[in-house]
Structure formats: C-alpha cells, structure tokens
Write a structure and sequence with these properties.
This protein is an alpha/beta fold. It has 9 helices and 7 strands, in the order H-H-H-E-H-E-H-E-E-H-E-H-H-H-E-E. The chain has a single domain, classed as Vaccinia Virus protein VP39 (Rossmann fold), CATH 3.40.50.150. It is about 45% helix and about 25% strand.
Length: about 210
Amino acid sequence: MLRSERLFQAVALPYALVTRHPVWERDCARMASELPPGCRRALDLGCGPGNSATHLRDAVPAVLAVDHAPAMLRRARRRDPRLLLVRGDARRLPVRDGSMDAVTFHSVLYLLPDRAAALRETARVLRPGGRAILLEPRDGIRAGTGLLRALPRPGWAITALLWRTMSGFYGRFTAADLRTLLESAGLRVVKLDEALDGLGLLAVAERPA
C-alpha cells in the first residue's frame, strides 16, 4: 500500500478541490465550535489544504498547521496566509509539553501507521483541560447509509465516494474503536457524534485537569 504522505504529496490539488464541498466545510466549522473555552493556541495535525485550519484560525488567535506533505502545505498557504505552517510528524510534534489548548485531526488518524503513538503525542502537547477534536471515517452500516444519502447531490457524492474508498484501504473506526484509542492515550471522551451526514465520527476528548 502506498504510504499516505506520498499519496497526498501527489494529489494535493485534486484533494483541495473535492474537499471544498459545503458539507465538508460545514463540519470543519463544526470542529472549531468544539474548541475549549478561552482557546488561544490550536494545532491542526495533517492540515492538508487548510480546510479545518482556516475555520480554526477564524476562531483562535494562533493556529499551527502541521502536515508531512509540502504540496499540502503550499495549498494551505494559498488558502489562508494567516496560518503558521510546519512540516512535521504526528509522532514528534514540534511544540512543548502542555503548550496547546487544542489539537485537531480531520481525516488524519485513519491514515497513520501508529495511531496510538500519535494520540499519546497529542496528549503530551495538550494543557490540562485542553481538547483533542477528531473527525474520522466511520465503519459500519450507518456509514453506508450516509453514502446512499449523498447520491442525490453529485458533487457531495463524488467527495463521499472518494473518502469512503480511501478509508477502505487505510481503515475506518467504530465509535468503540475511537473511544478505546483516545482513552488508551489518557484522554477523556466528552463527545462522540456522527458527522459528514453519517459517513464520519466527530470525537471530542479532553486531557484531564
């Protein structure tokens, strides 16, 4: 299987185009609405072309956007020059312990070969009471129903089908899977909802105070 960072280096432009759909953008904005009170510093991990990072930057004074693919960072710069962009690794985030109010992942955790290590690193950089906010592909029958609901909207159907296909290669999560991973990293789950019209899961977890 092609490593995800090489894949996304190659497909940065088409990925940016298909993820500008209003449904995708709506749930990027929804992630920003889950930031902890008083949030001033957020890190968007696997920022891609800047979809979720831009919504975060509208709500937070400082957003550090991290991605492994230089092509994705260039797309993010074009979308929002306000972002602080860094090429980095989910297993070694370039920030101090307890220095972030929030860490966000949109369609990132499922691509990582060591998900547990990435979440432990997330817990390390969060301050007590800080939040990890994730939107990831969902496994199970309800996700298939979400794909069927997308069919009457051709633009969204294309985006949904591509995301569903990609996550079939790299892996999807049940709610129980995602909860277990977060709790194993020492994070307390405060919310687990469906997202992207049933195709995804939105998880919010806190580092205990």
